[in-house]
Amino acid sequence: MKKEDNEQYETNLITLPLMKVGAKINLKNKAAITRWLANNGISYHKQASKTVVYKIDFDLHFEKPFVLALKRKHPQKWKEMYRAVCTDDRLYNIMMINMDEEVAPLPATKVIPLSNEDKKIFKDLS
Q1: What are 87-113's pLDDT values in tens digits?
Q2: Which residues 6+ apart lie within 8 Å of 117 measured at CB?
Q3: CB neighbours of 94 closer than 8 A, spacing ≥ 6?
Q4: CA 6 to chain centre
């Protein structure tokens, strides 16, 4: 197989082995872990002899109760608060899509006001 043909199989989706998922949710039995995954709507997949879960799918369901609690306690600022603690922009974006919220893009540049007038304009715009 040529290198170009092999590149189509590369992915940036990380998988977690079933037992690693179990360690995160404090379960050791494979049947209990797969039952927890099924109850939470997380699909698992066979890869060769291993059973794996996509990390992004697990993280989405694992963090959702925290996000819902933020939304309940801080209805005006919950998105900003979640963005502050979420270290993965992809997870943040998928969480917002999953909750039927608009995904606000991150600013690409940082604005540094040069004068007091610039500071006033910047304050008015933000």
Answers
A1: 888 899 889 988 877 776 666 677 677
A2: none
A3: 56, 60
A4: 28
Burial annotation 84-115 (CB, 10 A radius, 16+ → b, else e) = eebeeeebbbbbbeeeeeeeeeeeeeeeeeee
CA angle 38, 66, 50 (to 5 degrees): 35
Could you tell me if residue 41 is inside a domain? yes
Length of the chain: 126
Decide if 91 contacts 59 (C-beta within 8 A). yes
Residue 23 lies in a domain: yes
Q: Residue 20: which CATH number?
A: 1.10.10
> pLDDT tens digits for 55-79?
999 999 999 999 999 999 999 999 8
Closest among 97, 84, 10 to 56, alpha carbons compared: 97
* Domain count for the chain: 1
- For strand 15-17 and strand 50-54, is the pairing parallel, antiparallel, or unpaired? antiparallel
